[in-house]
Amino acid sequence: MPLQFNPVKLFAGTGSKALAHKIAASYGKPLGNVTLSRFSDGEFQPSYDETVRGCDAFLIQSTCQPNDNLMELLLMIDAAKRASAHYITAIVPYYGYSRQDRKDKPRVAIGAKLVANLLQAAGISRIMTMDLHAAQIQAFFDVPVDHLDASVIFVPYIKSLGLSDLIIASPDMGGSYRARTFAKFFNAEVVICDKRRKRANEIESMSIIGDVTGMDVVLIDDIIDTAGTLSKAAGLIMEKGAKSVRAVCTHPVLSGKAYETIENSMLTELIVTDTIPLKRESEKIRVLSTAELFAKAIANVNEHGSISDLFKV
């Protein structure tokens, strides 16, 4: 018996409109219409302006600046479920609260698990995301998780730069596995920036493990928030005799004075994706789009194809 493909409908939350339009254009289907009504006290209510009955509904919303965007996504999921959508996939390019993936001190929440519970309770059939802060977050879900890898976007760009003396760097010990995985694509060595924090977003000291003299250094991380770590790492790397230093970060959270920090840093370039929209442009920031990758993943899910094929660089 031939496979049955349900009609696909794509919808965007307000936090990811620009990316959703690109995904829809790459997929070859216009975005569906959603109206977001707001009450005077700030409460809001999304509603679909077209039928989703029997459809495979793909709801695109990053949970950056997470509270409103997350709540909007939960309400969109609930509305689609109550409107008899056949299959509901939450496309969450940036998964907010992913940094709270374990109890690293007493009496704290595990936010990443709580968000997973909320999404499942709302009614998702599947979640699609990119470069989780910790890959183990996939285990917080009891529905299929498509964890896309941004290296398939970054690696071709880095290769196009033609850096002759390339070396990969991790801005901290925790990112060493990510940096080593990335380095395999270039057969490159890895150096590590060993940092000690006073508290969140505040660095006490940093040192470099490895030799960067005369090298073109590329720092690898999943999230750039205040840019303090990467800026300090870039300055230290140049002090140690590097030829140039760039940073590759999937999710440009860029809070506080991050833009000023980047522009005043020793970074030649910061390369990010569009999982989170930039608040403003910067000459030092280059944005690579994830739209085509997400569009291919949507097609493969709907047509029962392989997702692992999308991980090939």
TrEMBL record:
The active site is at 195. The keyword Transport does not apply. Pathway: Metabolic intermediate biosynthesis; 5-phospho-alpha-D-ribose 1-diphosphate biosynthesis; 5-phospho-alpha-D-ribose 1-diphosphate from D-ribose 5-phosphate (route I): step 1/1. Signal peptide: none annotated. It is found in: Cytoplasm. The keyword Kinase applies. It catalyses: D-ribose 5-phosphate + ATP = 5-phospho-alpha-D-ribose 1-diphosphate + AMP + H(+). Mg(2+) binds at residues 133, 172. SUPFAM superfamilies: PRTase-like. GO terms for biological process: 5-phosphoribose 1-diphosphate biosynthetic process; purine nucleotide biosynthetic process; ribonucleoside monophosphate biosynthetic process. Involved in the biosynthesis of the central metabolite phospho-alpha-D-ribosyl-1-pyrophosphate (PRPP) via the transfer of pyrophosphoryl group from ATP to 1-hydroxyl of ribose-5-phosphate (Rib-5-P). HAMAP family: RibP_PPkinase_B. This is Ribose-phosphate pyrophosphokinase. The gene is prsA.
